[in-house]
Amino acid sequence: MLIYIDSDAVRMRVHRKLLVQSFPWLSVRCFDRWESGILDGVPSDRVVFVFTCMDDLTEAEMNAIISSARAEHPGLRWFALWAHDLSVPDWVAGLEPESVMGLPLDVHAIKRHLKHVAK
To answer: Do 4 and 51 meet the contact criterion of CB atoms below 8 Å apart?
Structure first.
């Protein structure tokens, strides 16, 4: 399963289309923000890839969100998406993302990174 979170509605529609086309073997869910039910119904033995656009999120918000999501779903693999023209704050590394990827979204880089584990 692939979950994509982005507060920009236009960007999310474009990225959702690209992700669905690139990963036809995965279920794709998109949300405009983190909310408590995004992992509802996902079996705990399933690998979940979560991509979060970090536009307006603070360290405290992300720490609470990621800690809760990892407790709820031990198979969670989290990726932070950050604008290329901005420097990534040091606190992002402390949340241990699998990777920090730049925006605009490079679906081909994601595909190369996940292809061997997503099937």
So the answer is: yes
Q: Which residues pair with 77 in a beta bridge?
A: 49
DSSP 3-state of 55 = coil
DSSP assigned state of 84: T
pTM of the model: 0.86
pLDDT tens-digit readout, 39-51: 888 887 888 999 9
The C-alpha angle with vertex 1 and arms to 74 and 56, in degrees rounded to 5, equals 80
Which string of DSSP letters, residue by residue, matches 3-42?
A: EEE-S-HHHHHHHHHHHHHH-TTS-EEEESS--TTTTTT-
